[in-house]
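Complex record, two chains
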Amino acid sequence: MGALIFPESHLHGDDDLSRFVRREQSQSSFGIAVRGAHCANCIAKIESGVRGISGVANARLNLSTGKLEVTWKGDAVSAAQVIARVRALGYDAQPFDAAQSQDADAGEQTFLLRCLAVAGFGTVFVMGLTDAVWYGGAEMSAATRNLFFWLAGAVSLPVTLFASQPFFRSAFQSLAKRQTNMDVPISLAIALSLGLSLYQTMVHGTQIYFDAAVMLAFLLLIGRYLDFLLRDRARGAARQLLAMQAEPARRFKPNGNLETVAAREIVPGDRVFLTSGERVPADGTLEDKDCLIDVSLVTGETEPVAISHGGALHAGTIILGKPVTLAVAARVEDSLVADLARLLEAGQQTRSLYVRLADRAARAYVPFVTALAALVFASWLWTGATFVTALTGAITVLVITCPCALGLAVPAVQIVATGRLFRRGIFVKSGDALERLAEIDTAVFDKTGTLTWGTPQLVNSDQIPRDILDAAASLARASRHPLARALAAFAGEGPVAQGVRETAGAGLEADMHGMTLKLGSARWCGLDVRGSTSELWFRPGHEAPVRLEFRDRMRPDTAAMLAALRERGIDVEMLTGDREAPAAEIAAEADITQWQAAADPKTKAARMQTLRAQGRRALMVGDGLNDAAALALAHVSIAPGSAVDVSQLAADMVLRGDSLMPIVEAVDVARKARSLVLENFGMAAIYNLIAIPVAALGFVSPLIAAASMAASSLVVTLNALRLARGGQR
Amino acid sequence: MNGMALIIGAAFVFGLGALCVLLWTLGSGQYDDLQGDAERILIDDEEDRPDAAG
């Protein structure tokens, strides 16, 4: 990850973190977001490490959320001390902003589980009573039957009313806005069936729907809970971004000393010290003579850019080579990154207008069913039936048509689909992302870091003897320069040369076997040529220097992935911030005819809006800060796992691993999930076509109502599970 | 009739008991970190080992 690990000394005595500490009487507690902990070893290491700080009362790491909770008495420990310890153990740690929203989410999850547990208990108990009557009622006396109904009522009334709160609340909120959603007929069916059953029990009738009401609540709560789990994942990503805003920066104090502050506290006029690999926190100008920066995250340009004294440094670019001082010219909020954040927000608003399949179905369904119930009621009255018989008929229609298929089938399909994709290395953040992915007809790709690796790769290795490469790599392993890292990565594991000296902006040298090995720029190796920034020279002793050429390369499965998408009828486009020449080269290699180079973030976002205006449904795949706005504006978006945090946040799905082929699988699964959902709707429609006339004519017994409800739920769930089976083949 | 009352009563009490236990586990946060709990069984608590004292 891009976050930096600071030595302990930078954080000691830094009282700035005290606002993250919660105090209750003499007890202080402090939450830390820990990244990189995955196993029992990590838990043990972190917990025992933090407990080892004298004064710490307890430390407990929640592996699922990555939150470490530390408590101590009074002021025995400082928050910075705890963070420094976790970082010293090799994990990335950020103070956890007292995120109340997260606690609210956790509360909602527990509440749904509570409702589900209560409804489950009620279903089993009430069915035991009523089923005894449905199957053995003939052998019972009328008094026993009535006692059973009273008992069923006594349990199911409080249980159902408690467990149905999520539906009642949602229905009420929707009606208050003069809209209807799925929860309106659900609430109506539950409330009316309870009322009718109570009345029938009092008059010794047989239309008792206590079991149906509580079972309905139970089945729909399962769907609601699955849906919540899916949405919760998306919120987890947002929490991580908030934690990231606490990224530290080092600022010069007036006396020339350095102090560590949160990046968002930087103001114009500040001078910030940046070393190689650090991200520029705010727009500003360079105070040093010159420096090299990596702008690939901001513009998509792959070659490092040279900046001279007074030149502009944009937020989000990364410093290469020697340490520099930045004179801050804009507030963090006014910097380029903040611009992107605003575009991102605009995109997310557009996306929230998307109406989910289930809601679209509900919009058509609710008026239809309510009108039908009214019609049945009127028809019974018209044929001369009593008021009670007519009302019973209408309520039976409402109960039996209750939208189980919508409430349970859609989340069931989506959770099976996201589970299958998760095993294939795709993290889907929301259920409706799958619905949107199933609709795409265009796929727009970023170049750098998406179609290509995004990092330089050694391209002329076949012209260089292996022993020369190994010698060069032994020097390269000692440096953090991107080209040196690329060389080290190419050579694989191996020894590091002893006593490597690095001259920032020039190169490396080391003495070995009585001669001096040099690795670096052309001039560093004694050549009087103007070198390019995408090459390294290696000179062993006084032999002739060897040129090592680096270029960003296409990922190995890019071509196969693009071909598979075209096969599925999806048009492919490339949109890059890189210059014309490298863009043309990759476009030719990937066989992309529709492409645009030198596109800045706004151009990319505008392209997404154009596609939308043309009525096209576009998938955006990108990794950089410059893609974030386009990712948010696209119909649906995917970010590779190497993407910057902002882009991972903006995207609907995130790939794990280096392969691009999961994108194709995601499209397939999304389309399959969509057809399964439609199939489930179809089955529900057929079921209703049969059930409604029967119910309207008054032939439905409560047993049939309860059994058909359970059966239809079972069928749609089993249908959803077919998707999981496909994944194992 | 007496037998039936007993059975129904017992079913209700047992069911309610199980429900209360489940709600208690929910309330006390036992499902908050399923991933972590699965991993924690692998951590050796040194105090538990018989030879830890010696």
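Note: The mean pLDDT of chain B is 79.
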